[in-house]
Each structure stands twice: as C-alpha cells, then as structure tokens.
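Can't paste images in this forum, so I'm doing it all in text. The chain is below; anyone willing to post the predicted structure tokens underneath?
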Amino acid sequence: QVQLVESGGGLVQPGGSLRLSCAASGSMFSRFVMGWYRQAPGKQRELVAAVSWWGVTNYADSVKGRFTISRDNAKNTVYLQMNSLKPEDTAVYYCNTGSRTITTAGNYWGQGTQVTVSS
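Text version of the structure:
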C-alpha cells in the first residue's frame, strides 16, 4: 500500500514561485514513476510532470521551462518547483504514483493541494 501526502500549495502572485512536496510511504515507492497532475474547475485532470526512478522526466508543454520535477529516493519524496507562475496554473495539484511509465498515471493519488495564482 502506498500513501501520498502533498504540501506547499498556496496563493501566489503572477510571476511568483512555489514548491510542492509529496512524501510517499510504502516499500514500492522507488520502483514507480512519480508524477504531478492538476485539475482546474470545469476541466479534466491533466499531467503536469512525471519523473522515473532513474530521473527521466516528462512535462506538459504548458509548463516546460517554468516547472521542474525532481525526486529524492532516499527520502521517498518528489518535488515540483514552479516558477513564473501564471493565472492559468491555478488548480488543485495531485501527487501520483503506481505507474511504470512517465506518460500514464498510476493508481495512487494524494489528497491534493490548492495552487492559486492571482494578483
């Protein structure tokens, strides 16, 4: 069983930065891809970024060059550094794991953390 706990969301002005963290429990963590997804009101949940155990990454086109995903396997934690935030980045961000590919979501989800970009 895997449990995911996110932190780091909040309110930030356009152009600002936030860092999300997701701590995972469970012995299978290191074998799975870790990813961040987001869901804005009235929209479908979408992939933001994902990283494999070996550090191979995948980003949505809308965040390339602004967001960076990383993981610390020793700490069972994945991070999402978000820079140059835009109002359209406003969403609930979910940590995800359980998949072995960086293009598909796994079965384990965190509770979500709200990110609001507004002046």
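The two ends are 40 Å apart (CA to CA). DSSP finds no helices and eleven strands in the chain.
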